[in-house]
Amino acid sequence: MSGADLVVDALQKADIRGWLDVVWHFDDATHQHCLLVAGLAAGFAQQLGLSEPDCRQLTQAALLHDLGKSRIPLAILNKPSRLDANEIAVMRTHPVIGHEMLRNGDFSDTMLAVVRSHHEALDGSGYPDNLRADRIPDIVRLVTVCDVFGALIERRPYRRPLAGNEAYEILRSMDGKIDIDLVRAFQPLAEAAGTVADAA
Ligand SMILES: [Fe+2]
Ligand SMILES: [Fe+2]
Fold first, then answer.
1. How confident is the model over 152-172, as a mean pLDDT?
2. Where in the numbering of this chain does the HD domain appear (predicted)?
């Protein structure tokens, strides 16, 4: 199954599609971001040779990782300039909100961990739970790499989209916070994304 097929497959699951539609109706840019991160995660899962169930689970989790942003005021979510301290605090509630939205549904603990913990850092400096490396599961680390990279190659109101190789250098500079072995394994995808960005 190709990366694109994995995303299409995940979108055909009614509960995934339903929650992603909540994001779509709220904010198109966040919806696009979720699709991008899911595409990256699907490609990454396959490159790493994960089993098909793991590929599916990772793709589904990536699609909904930012569900909680559908409850963040748009004035903060799409603010065209730097967020102030209060706004950052509000923005940083999105993993817990997303987790709350899904926790009573029929989702695996792995899926819920991705939604809640994708902004954790290996050195414990992330949020919302200041988890350290030994508490951050591999699937969460995978999504974090794809999420950071995806955000960098996207166009934002306040900056141009970075080319894949520029975004990759930033990922590499985050050694100690994100899993650098995974970052190394991600390089071929980063290069492929660079080609897309250059052509656009
Ligand atoms: Fe997020
Ligand atoms: Fe994200």
1. 91
2. 30-149
